[in-house]
From TrEMBL:
SUPFAM superfamilies, sorted: Periplasmic binding protein-like II
Domain named Solute-binding protein family 3/N-terminal: residues: 30-256
InterPro entries: Quinoprotein_dehydrogenase, Solute-binding_3/MltF_N
Record's keyword terms, sorted: Signal
Native organism taxonomy: Bacteria, Pseudomonadati, Pseudomonadota, Alphaproteobacteria, Rhodobacterales
Name the record gives this protein: Amino acid ABC transporter substrate-binding protein
Signal peptide from the UniProt entry: 1-20
SMART domains: PBPb
UniProt xrefs under PANTHER family: ARGININE-BINDING EXTRACELLULAR PROTEIN ARTP (PTHR35936:SF17), MEMBRANE-BOUND LYTIC MUREIN TRANSGLYCOSYLASE F (PTHR35936)
Coiled-coil intervals: none
Length: 270
């Protein structure tokens, strides 16, 4: 988490004339997207990610060509892209981060369990299920399900992948899905937008959303776009387009295999 001091600095800066000029950085001739070039299945430099498809949709409704500033997710991403003025919107940004101004959310997704379809764990839909005891389980370290799994006594058999990696080099989520497929892991607990699209076309695997988890931390998160802090007009324009085009957004996400849930993480929408 960022410190309260950092928040205060950002708020104060937004009130200065220099910060007010940041609004002038937004292009009126291009839909300029900040993105990771290798964060498949979300964003990819080859245009195959579902966030690429969503960016193209927004470019069309805004009547602007889509261009990209590519930079790997992790330390310095916002500073080197959005804050530098090289691009104007970050697709797929979790609600609540103070480094950006969030639009309204355009989807809500959830963590879930990837298993083989023929596994005796295929019916498991809670992390507290006794069937998970003494099984080899993959999870990304530092994600919400890792905390719940440790609390449920599963820590000794957890195989953790790194949360922040250069996806041009490493692919911990893809590796875990492959290990579930070949039986090295019995199951993996993963973020739906990363796992769902990789599982949807494999009849030997399934993704079961964690709809029944009630204890903290929550397993579902609202996903927005991120814009620069002072850019209220730009945020309002994007919010308007989200509202007008929600059905098309949902269709793109559903076709990609992203598990969509209601705003309370209790019911699947697709």
């Amino acid at each position: 988490m960022h410190s309260a001091l950092r928040t205060l600095i950002l708020v104060c800066a937004a009130a200065t004339p220099a910060a007010a000029q940041v609004a002038d950085l937004r292009s009126t001739t291009q839909f300029r997207v900040c993105a990771d070039p290798a964060n498949s299945p979300m964003s990819s430099k080859d245009g195959s990610g579902f966030e690429n498809s969503l960016a193209e949709m927004f470019g069309q409704v805004l009547d602007l060509p889509v261009t990209y500033t590519w930079f790997p997710l992790g330390m310095g991403f916002i500073r080197q892209t959005l804050q530098a003025g090289d691009c104007d919107v970050v697709m797929g940004y979790a609600q609540g981060d103070e480094m950006v101004q969030n639009t309204n959310h355009y989807y809500t997704s959830i963590y879930g369990i990837v298993t083989r379809a023929d596994s005796d764990l295929a019916s498991v839909d809670r992390l507290g299920d006794p069937a998970l005891k003494d099984r080899e389980l993959g999870v990304i370290a530092g994600t919400p399900p890792a905390t719940t799994m440790a609390r449920a006594g599963l820590a000794k058999n957890m195989h953790g992948g790194d949360l922040t990696v250069d996806r041009r080099v490493l692919d911990p989520v893809g590796d875990m899905i492959r290990e579930v497929h070949d039986g090295t892991l019995d199951a993996a607990v993963l973020w739906g937008p990363l796992a769902g699209p990789q599982v949807k076309d494999d009849p030997e695997l399934q993704f079961t959303p964690l709809l029944k988890e009630e204890a903290s931390p929550r397993m579902f998160y609202r996903i927005t776009m991120g814009v620069r802090l002072p850019e209220q007009e730009w945020k309002r324009e994007l919010n308007s387009q989200i509202r007008r085009n929600q059905d098309q957004i949902n269709q793109i996400l559903t076709e990609a295999g992203v598990p969509l849930v209601d705003d309370y993480g209790k019911e699947l929408l697709n």
